[in-house]
Amino acid sequence: MKDLKEITTRLKIAKKNLETKEVKNEGSNAASFGKALKISTELVAAVLVGSIMGFLFDSWFGTKPLLIICFFFIGVAAGIINVFRSAKKMNKNI
Amino acid sequence: MSLNPMHQFEVYKIGPEINLNGINVSFTNASLFMTISSMLILSLLFLGTKKKSLIPSKIQLITEMTYMFVAKMINDTAGSSAKSFFPFIFTLFMFVLFCNMVGMLPYSFTVTSHIIVTFVLAAVVFVGVTVIGFAKHGIKYLELFVPKGVPMVLLPLIIVIEIISYLSRPVSLSVRLFANMMAGHTMMKVFGGFVISLGVLGGWLPLGFSVALTGLEILVAFLQAYVFAILTCIYLNDALNLHH
């Protein structure tokens, strides 16, 4: 019976740990690691999306090389902002 | 035996060709390995919860650990308000994890090494998060694209940049998983090919590399599933608790 009591108290502590945690952006080490992996592809993805958007707009409006150039650079800016934000978020947590 | 390192990613159909209104829905090896992964998950969870004893058996322990792992992850990154999305994130995590792990077995097929699979998963997350954001905040969700304290002159440019940055989420989510899995499996196959072509004399070094790479790939398989789930949690947190 002693074991059972111990397990009950442990369960209570575990449940409390789960419940009391409120919304917070800083996570455990593992969460930061996830953010670090996020950064690497973030830049490339934004450039890719920007270029694809520019290409689509070009073929819709018939302004062949103009919009893809603009949107490529906007995509680069978006990628840098993404990386900057992730890095700032991580920096805040240390 | 084929020495082509890309041969392992080939999709071929098993059984008869099925056509539904001109769409080819034949059963392929990709569908086979998705089914195997889902069945493995189902049997693990079924066996783990069949006999609920106070002192858990090994399989029950594994099941409880995965549950606790995902529950803690959601709590840490998305807060308690995201608790109702636990089933979705748990399913996503388990599916990606098991597809990656099943792909590590010899002669198997890695479903997640195809960008269309990972992109569909990421697109579901993306559309879901957007719908949740609009359902919770209404039109105010668009404030996500307007950072505070930006001068009016720069606003049109900033909004375009923010929209591209938002749209790049599913791309980065899917490309990361796909690229990691495909690169790893190609590399393993290349080193395996070296073992055969160098023969008994020089094949030992690449063989050692293959062993090390297998260990690394198992780590990557787990890590990528984890990253996929945790990023879903982070995006969910952005949608549920609107702030920059």
Tell how many strands the DSSP assignment of chain B holds.
2
> Gap between N and C termini of chain A, in Å?
44 Å
Low-confidence stretches of chain B: none
- Globular, elongated, flat, extended or rod-shaped: what is the shape of chain A? rod-shaped
Secondary structure class of chain A reads mainly alpha
Number of helices of chain B: 6
Spatial separation of the terminal alpha carbons of chain B: 54 Å
- Tell me the strand percentage band of chain B: under 5%
Helix content of chain B: 55-70%
Main sheet summary of chain B? 2 strands, antiparallel
Main β-sheet, spatial strand arrangement of chain B: 1-2
Classify the helix fraction of chain A into a percent range: over 70%
Largest interface: A-B, 35 and 33 residues
Strand content of chain A: under 5%
Mean pLDDT of chain B: 87
Please give the radius of gyration of chain A in angstroms: 23 Å
Shape of chain B: globular
The quaternary state of the protein chains shown equals: heterodimer
User: For the residues shown, what is the average pLDDT of chain A?
Assistant: 77
Topology:
The complex is a heterodimer of chains A (94) and B (244).
Chain A: H1 2-20, H2 29-61, H3 64-93
Chain B: E1 19-20, E2 23-24, H1 29-50, H2 58-78, H3 86-103, H4 115-137, H5 155-202, H6 204-240
Antiparallel strand pairs in B: 1-2
Notes on the structure:
The complex is a heterodimer of chains A (94) and B (244). Chain A contains 3 helices and no strands. Chain A is mostly helical and 94 residues long. The relative contact order of chain A is 0.13. A two-stranded antiparallel sheet of chain B has the order 1-2. In chain B, helix 1 (29-50) crosses helix 2, helix 1 (29-50) packs across helix 3 (86-103) and helix 4 (115-137) runs parallel beside helix 6 (204-240). Chain B is globular. The model of chain B has no long low-confidence stretch (mean pLDDT 87). Chain A binds chain B through residues 4, 7, 18-19, 21-25, 27-28, 30-31, 34-35, 37-38, 40-42, 44-46, 48-50, 53, 71, 74-75, 77-79, 81-82, and chain B through 54, 71-73, 75-81, 157, 160-162, 164-165, 167-169, 171-172, 175-176, 179, 223, 226-227, 230-231, 234, 237, 241.
